[in-house]
Amino acid sequence: MTDRPIKWSYMDHWRAQGPAGPYDQWQSKLAMKRFLQQVAAVGFDAIDTFDFRIWQIFEQYGSVANYQEFVQEQGLERIVNTFHGVYYSPDRYAPEVPATHGTILEDFQRTLDMWSGIQLDNIIVMPGSRYFDEAGVPDDGLKHAADIWGKVGELTQQYGVNLTCHHEFYAGIRTRDQIDRFYSYADPRYVKFFVDTAQHCIADVDPVDVYEKHHERVTGFHFKDTRHKDVNDDYRMFPDAEVSAKTTEKWFYEMGTDEGLVDFEAMMRSVRDNGYTGWISVEHDKADKLGGDYAESTAISRWYAKNVLDGIYNEEVAR
To answer: What pTM value is reported for the model?
Structure first.
């Protein structure tokens, strides 16, 4: 960070409409260039990405260092975080199942080696796999998950990267009780917390309150809004309630949306008052549903960050 205590990164969900239909920024270097320039033009400072994009990065840019240089040429500072998206399965890859822990460690060793050409802040994980039992992950499963993520976090710190946990509303570790117990078992030196404001609201978890409880281990945020709580147990829908739920066609909205459930002003005051400095990531997951538009949502969120949230944070800084 330079002279600004908070900077804004953009998580690279994106779709645009072309002559042949919708496409994303990974379609070509030209599409990526246009995406990055639009994100920079509205005032974002950096981007986040998914680590499964590594193969497209190697194919199109040759290395992650080359890709980051391409990002910088479009006016952004760097890649801040990467989200580790994998298919969780109890027979091969599940934090709650000790028999899969060797596979998880091997996976992260390979992943970190592939991304070692740049300096990331965080590698973000879903700490619990899908768990369709209404009771959620049992207590011994929470302990097993805390154990493996502690080992992974110790490994990531050898690369100067935080292992940080992101709780989706449809995942096994989703309720406030589950979250609190998981972090009570997880080593705070190695297992960090990444707050997603909308995901917590959907699961009926107050994002401000859970942040304040665990703020000392928070290493980042996804700021996005929602208009809905999951009141129909949609979290149990297979394979992913974000796309499978019949009751709610669109879960996520940009900051500043009408009827949004996230109190971003209270969130930003808490961020400020707890002394957080660093990056906040804006995410627009599936923004194009119900006639939405990624470019529009991105511009609206950046306006809200600049004209509302930065002002709240800077009120205290200026005193």
So the answer is: 0.95
- CA distance readout (Å), 127 to 88, 96, 168, 292: 10, 9, 9, 30
Nearest Cα to 238, choosing from 58, 123, 68, 89? Answer: 89
Alpha helical stretches, state H, 42-138? 54-61, 64-73, 101-115
Residue 99 CB-density burial (10 A; 0-12 exposed, 13-18 middle, 19+ buried): exposed
Q: What are phi and psi of 8, to 5 degrees?
A: -120, 125
Tell which residue, 50, 45, 67, 41, has the closest CA to residue 12: 50
Class of domain 15-314: alpha beta
Helices and strands in the chain: count of H runs, count of E runs: 12, 10
| DSSP run (H or E) holding 24 | none
Mean pLDDT of all residues belonging to the chain: 93
Domain ranges across the chain: 15-314
Q: Model confidence over 12-52: pLDDT tens digits?
A: 888 888 888 888 999 999 999 999 999 999 999 999 999 99
The tens digit of pLDDT for each residue in 266-306 reads 999 999 999 999 999 999 888 778 788 889 999 999 999 99
Whole-number Cα distances in Å, 284 to 66, 222, 293? 26, 9, 10
Residue 253 has phi, psi (to 5 degrees) of -140, 165
